Amino acid sequence: MSKVIGLSGNEAAAYAAKQSKVDVVAAYPITPQTIIVERFSEYVANGEVETEFICVESEHSAMSACIGASLAGARVFTATCSQGLALMHEMLYIASGLRLPIVMAVANRALSAPINIHCDHSDMMGSRDCGWIQVFCENVQEVYDWIIQAFKLSEDLNVLLPMAVNFDGFTISHAMEDIKVLEDEEVEAFLSTRKVKYKLDPNEPMTFGALMLPDYYFEAKRQQEEAMKKAYEKYIDVVKEYEKLSGRAYNYLHEFMLEDAEAAIICLGSTTGLVRQVAKKLRGEGKKVGVLKPWLFRPFPSKEVLKALENIKSLAVLDRAISFGAPFGPLCSDIMATFFSEGKIIPIFNVIYGLGGREITPKEIEEIFNLALKTAKRGKVEEKVKFIGVRE
Amino acid sequence: MSKLTWKEIPIGGVIPKGGTAIEYKSGDWRTFRPVIDVNKCVNCLICWIYCPDSSIIRLEKHVDVDYYHCKGCGICAEECPVKAIKMVEE
Question: ipTM more than 0.95?
Answer without folding.
Answer: no
